[in-house]
Specification:
The chain has 505 residues and is α/β, with parallel strands linked by helices. It has helices at 9-22, 36-47, 85-94, 127-136, 151-154, 179-184, 208-213, 219-224, 230-240, 255-261, 282-292, 305-308, 315-319, 331-344, 385-399, 402-416, 420-430, 444-447, 457-466, 472-479, 483-504, and strands spanning 73-75, 116-118, 144-147, 161-162, 203-207, 248-251, 268-271, 274-277, 323-328, 351-354, 366-369, 372-379, 436-439. It has two domains: 9-198 and 372-418, Periplasmic binding protein-like II (D-Maltodextrin-Binding Protein, domain 2), CATH 3.40.190.10; 203-369, Periplasmic binding protein-like II (D-Maltodextrin-Binding Protein, domain 2, 3-Layer(aba) Sandwich). The longest helix is centred in the C-terminal third of the chain and has 22 residues, at 483-504. The two termini are 42 Å apart.
Amino acid sequence: MKHTKKLSAIILSAVMLTTACANNVSPGGSTEIKDSAANSSDNNESNGSNTDAVPESKSVKDVVGDIKVDTKVKFLGWYDLNNSNIADTYKKLFGVPQKNPEGYETDHSGNDTEPFIDVYLSSYVDRYYTLAKLIGSGDSPDAFPAEISRMPCSVGADKLFQPIGDIIDFETDEFAPYSKIQQSLKYVGNDYVPIFSSTPRSLLWYRSSVVKESGLEDPWELYEKNEWTWSKFLSMCESFSSSEKKKYGVDGYFVEREILSTVGKGLIGIEDDLLTSNADDEKIISAMDYLRQFATSQKKLRYPCEEENGWSPSDSEWANGNTLFYQDGLWRYDETWRLYKKKNKWSDDEINFVPFPRCDDEQSYYQGYNCAENTYMLPIGLKNPEGYKALVYSAAYLYNDSSAQTRLREEKKTEYDWNDRLLDRMDKINSPDAFEWVVDCRDYFREVPPTASTDVIVDILSESSYVHGKDYRTFITEESPDIIEELDKATDRINKSAENIGTEQ
C-alpha cells in the first residue's frame, strides 16, 4: 500500500486524509474510461431525436476525453503525489505526459514513468512563502493542496490562487453529492476549492473496556440514537475525571475548535461569500462557556498537557486507560492505536471512535471542515491548466469509484488491522450528508496575519476558556475589549482586498 510523506505530528491528521483517499486504487484496478464520443453517440441513439428528454447524468469519464495533456503537472506540496494511487489513476486516464515543464527537463525522480513533477519545498512551514516566490518569478506550480482553514490567504488577499469555475465541471456525478459543501466554500462569489470527498478531520477515540468499567453508556450507541450531546459528553468526562488519580476526560490538539464548530459556526467563517468573524456571536460564546468547564482552573476535565507532557497530547495515557477520549483523525488507528492493540492483545471491539457531540440546542451534528483536504487549488500564473484539470478529475474519479473503495477496505483490514465494525462506521461518517459541514478559516490569522497583532488572536480566544478557564464574555468585553474590534477590522480588510483582486482578474 502506498503512502504519502508525513512531516510532523501536528500536521499528520491533515496529511493522512490525503493518504487515506489517495490509496483507493491499486495498479490494475477498474478505472477503464470509455471514449466520450462513443458515449455521446450511444446517448443520442437511445434518446432518438427527442430534445425534451431529461439529460442523463454524466461522470468524469464522460468529459476526460476532451482533455489533452502533453506536459507533466508541477506539484508543490509537502508530500510526494507520485507516491499515491492518484498517480495510478491519472496514468490510466491520461497516460504519462511526454513533456516536462520548462526548466524541469531533467526528471527529479530519476525516471520518466510518473505524471507529476514534485517542486522542491524546504519545509511545510515555508509552503506559502515558496509558492509566492515561485509565482513572483514566473515559475508557478500547476497545483497546490487545498487547506480550507487558510482559504483567505489562498484566494485573493495574497494573490496566490485563482477561481476554478471555468475549469472544473461541477455538474458531473462525482461532484454532485458535495454541492452543499461546495456552495459553503464560495468566496467573493467564486469557487476556489473543488470538493469531491468528505472525511471528518478529527473524532473522539475511546476504549470500550474503559467506558464499560466506568459504568458509562457507549458513545457510538448514543450517536446512533441521536442522543450524543454536549451534556452526555460532559457528564461522562465529569464522572471519569479525577485530578488526584490523574484521570481526565479528554485530550488532543484541537478539542476546542471542534467543540466550537458544533454550534454550526466557525470562529472565522464564510457568510454570503465573504469572510466573517463570529468571535462575539452568542453561539460561540455559549460554546466557550461550555469549554471553560474543562480547564484546569475549573473542573479539570482535560489532560493538562502543559504540565505533564510539554504541551503535547499523550497517546500513552489514553492507551493506559487514564484518558477517556482522545481527539484525532482516522489516521491515528493506522499509525498508533493498532500497535497498542497488538502489544496489549486487545480484542477487536476494544478501540472505537465517535464524532464530536452535538450541542443540546442544535438538531444537527456539525463537523468542522478545517484542514488540508484531498483536493487541489489552482495557483496564479500556472502554464498547464489542462494538467490541473486532469489531476482534479483523476482524484474525483478515484475517490468515488466503488470498486476502489472495496479494495481500500480490504487493504485496511489486511495491512492495518481494521475490522468490519470500524470500517462500517467509517463509511457512515464519510458520507457527505453525515454532518452539516462548518467552515472555519481561523488559521489564516495565524500563518499569514494581516497585521502583526492579529496572528495569535484566534489562539488567544480559544485558549482563554478551554486552557485558562476565563469567562469568555468578560474576557472580550472587559479584559480585552479591543480584540473583537481588531479581528472585525482585519476581516473587513481581507474581504476588500480579495474583492478588488477578484475584479482585476
